[in-house]
Each structure stands twice: as structure tokens, then as C-alpha cells.
Specification:
With 328 residues, this protein is an alpha/beta fold. It has helices at residues 2-14, 28-43, 61-64, 74-83, 102-107, 137-148, 155-168, 179-190, 195-203, 208-219, 237-242, 253-256, 287-292, 312-324, and strands spanning 17-21, 47-52, 70-71, 86-90, 111-116, 127-130, 222-224, 229-234, 264-271, 274-281, 297-298, 302-308.
Amino acid sequence: MKEKIKQLQTIFEAKKKFVLTTHINPDADAVGSEVALARYLAGTGKTVHVLNHSETPDNLLFLNEIFPITPYDAQQHTQAIIDADCFIVLDTNSVSRFKALQPAFERSKAYKVIIDHHLDHESFADLNIIDTHVPATSELLYIILKSINDTAITKPIAEALYAGIMTDTGSFRFPQTDPETHIITADLLKRGAQPYEIFQKIYESGPINKLHLLGKALTSIDLHHNGKVAVMTLPRSIFAETKTVESDVDNLTQYVLSIGGVVIGIVVMELEHGVKLSFRSKGDIPINELAKHFDGGGHKNAAGARVKEATLQSIIPFVLEKAKEFLK
């Protein structure tokens, strides 16, 4: 890892024009790591564009104040990708996950870097800095920046990194949270991050519509396989009824795993052209292996997949049948 960080430092020093991106429907770890790195690079005099397929969710817009993120438009932004001499992908390692940016990315001759913590990465970058043992890409980025320049982590960067670590660890309760994570977040607090303010902005500033969505989502939960598997079902109609959007679902996955006796939790969300699956598990159940059956992936205890052209009626029995294999 040290050699790769030194290699990245050389790239940071040599390159002048950077483009950063992340996965569709970005969470706080994705956005936090993007804006933190962009703020650092801009502070060293680099030209930086952060371009995402998806708009930043409302509860994360405060992170855009640290560094602006632009929703990608092919007519306006293709040239920025073509002109860049370094393209950095954060919190994902799959080309298809940047969606609209993919055609321009594949044309780009820029030096390509992945900074991520997910399993099963694709080989499309010149430099892969991937650590599947850290609970958040933001934690990995903290390690990188601190190694390059300890003074680089200013208060705004500390706030962005803290937001990413706090959310991707489930407020420090998920299995990969270890002593090192707490040491790192303590340092971020010393550098100016305010935990209560960040938590409030992310989790306690939403519209009442999100609570209406939560209410309907909770009533949809069913138990299967002797109460060991919980499934939350979200038809498209639920979003119209509550005036919410897909990104408002991000924090709902915790509820399917909060039931006593449940070891696998699944959220099945109907999309315009298919279904999105979110998987969670307890203990040693490798839920990312279940996600692979649907061309998805992720972490050992948290993973996801998207199945094109599937319906709720067709996918749920199939998912439950596959889930049964992981209960043995």
C-alpha cells in the first residue's frame, strides 16, 4: 500500500487536469471522498472537475459547499474528460457504475486511478488503490492524504471524510468498524469536524415525505424461511404516493435487519426498467456472494445488484430461493 500511495503522490504532482467521479445514486462516502480529494487537489493548484451521473441527494448538499459537484451532461462535459490527464474513480470499481460518463471515460487517454474499498474490482485503471478491509473509501482517503501531507486534511476535508466514515460504518456499528476507525475519526474531530452537526444534516433534516415513505416501507416487510430472512418491497407506486425518489431509500436497509432472528435482510425496489436489490447480512454470511447471482457485488455483509427488465413478481421468489442456500 505504501508504494501505491507514493505512486499516487507522484501522479498528483505530475498531472494538472483532474476529473473525479463515483457511482450512480451516490451516498455520503462517495460524495465525501470526492469533495475531500477535489478540495485537496484544487488547493495544490490543480484544475479539478467533479462530474457525477446522478445529482447529489438533498441531505448531502452541504458537502457540495466543500467542493462543487456537477451532474454530468455529455454536450457540456465530454471535452473536460477528454482533456483531463488524470481520471479518478472513488467508491466504486465498475465502469458501468458511472453510467453517463462511461463513453467519454472509455475514449479518454488520461491516467486512470481507482480509490475504493469494495470487493471484486474490475481491471480498467492504471493504478488500483483498493483496501477491502477498511469500512469506507473516506477512511482509505484519509490514510492516503495523511501519508502524502499531514497538514492537507483541513477542517472542510475533515468534515467530508467524517461524513463518509460515519455513514458507511452505520454510525460506527457495522462489523468492519475497528479501533483504527475510531482513532481516525478522533483525529478528524481534532481537525474541526463536528459530529452532531454532520449527523443532523444527513439524518435529521429531511422532509416529512421521507417519513411517509418509511411508514409504507415498514408495513411491506415480510418474513421468510422460518423468520431468518426479511424482505422489504418497494413498488414504483410508493414513490408517487409519498412524493419521494430512489435516493430516499438509502437508509431503509437498516430496518430489514433490525428484527430478532433475521440474519438476511433484502430490500427489493421496482425501477422503471427493472429491479434494484439491496442485501444485508449478519455474522459470517457472505451476502456479496448472493448478490453475484444477480451480477451485483459489494461487501461481505452489505451488497447490491440491479436486474434489468425484471419485475417484483418474478424476482422475489428467485431471490428467496437463492437466499435459502446461505442459511445452511
